[in-house]
Amino acid sequence: MARRLVREKALQTLYQYEMNPGMRERVVAKEADELKPQVSPDDLSFFKRLTEGVIRHQEKLDEVIQGYLRNDWTISRLPSLDRIILRMALVELVFEEEIPYGVTLNEAVDLAKTFSTEESRKFINGVLASMVKEMETIRKSFAGEDA
């Protein structure tokens, strides 16, 4: 349950980060401080790796995600929450190797169910399922980079 809370908080934090450019410097630190009393040190570290990984690798993440979009969709046309959920899941898939792919996919779909739409849930599941089939290749494209 703690990891679910961490993922929800990461989604909310990254949404704030994207929507409030003037507050970007403080958003992640502020949210981490609020989360700290609610979770273990390991879960707090996961929160930081997840949020900072999305921020640090956003351009590369978007490039990879774009390669799995169909029907003339572009990353910029996706709803913000869906884009952030996909980025977070991809950071997990690439950098958190101890987390089984199925767990990451289920958590991403649950985030979409909670914060987005039924169509988004299906869309995110499809995109991530396609990525998982080529995860070794995707991981190699991030070789040498830290979360």
From TrEMBL:
Q: Give residue ranges for domain NusB/RsmB/TIM44.
A: 6-133
Q: Which InterPro entries match?
A: NusB-like_sf, NusB_fam, NusB_RsmB_TIM44
Select a single GO molecular function from the record's annotations and give it: RNA binding
Q: Carries keyword RNA-binding?
A: yes
- Biological process GO terms, please? DNA-templated transcription termination; transcription antitermination
A GO CC annotation recorded here is: cytosol
Q: Which UniProt keywords apply?
A: RNA-binding, Transcription, Transcription antitermination, Transcription regulation
**A matching Pfam family:** NusB
Q: What does this protein do?
A: Involved in transcription antitermination. Required for transcription of ribosomal RNA (rRNA) genes. Binds specifically to the boxA antiterminator sequence of the ribosomal RNA (rrn) operons.
**Family under the similarity heading:** Belongs to the NusB family.
Q: What is the protein name for this chain?
A: Transcription antitermination protein NusB
Q: Which organism is it from?
A: Marinithermofilum abyssi
